[in-house]
Write a structure and sequence with these properties.
Low-confidence stretches: none
Structural class: mainly beta
Number of domains: 1
Oligomer: single chain
Strand order of the largest sheet: 1-6
Mean pLDDT: 86
Helix content: under 10%
Radius of gyration: 44 Å
Order of helices and strands: HEEEEEE
């Protein structure tokens, strides 16, 4: 008898539905969506250069070829003189970091109107 009761429980039962009729005639829905976004970034700019060497001046004489190994002496000690020497190695010659934060805010408002 128990097995008959178990078998009856496994049989599908009938499902009945009933029609649903809305009880409204008109309506509205207001919706507001706010969005905030923050982006933080760091931008690094590196400028590279090659080896550079320059010499300039007046009333100066170089011994041998002009270059880093040359010796420079004043030609006429009774007159004014000027001398400038610049030597740069290859590699990074400038680094720039830009640290910025960008914040954006947006608002979307919508209105839905419906009727039956």
């Amino acid at each position: 008898m128990r097995w008959l009761l178990g078998l009856l429980l496994l049989l599908p039962g009938a499902a009945y539905g009933q029609a649903v009729t809305p009880n409204f005639t008109t309506g509205t829905v207001n919706s507001t969506t706010n969005t905030n976004q923050t982006v933080a970034e760091i931008i690094r700019i590196e400028t590279y250069g090659g080896t550079q060497y320059s010499v300039s001046g007046s009333n100066v004489t170089a011994s041998g070829n002009i270059g880093p190994a040359a010796t420079y002496t004043v030609t006429d000690a009774t007159k004014d003189f000027s001398y400038s020497q610049v030597s740069l190695s290859a590699g990074i010659i400038q680094t720039q970091d830009i640290d910025r934060t960008i914040t954006t805010t947006s608002t979307v408002q919508s209105l839905s109107v419906f009727s039956q």
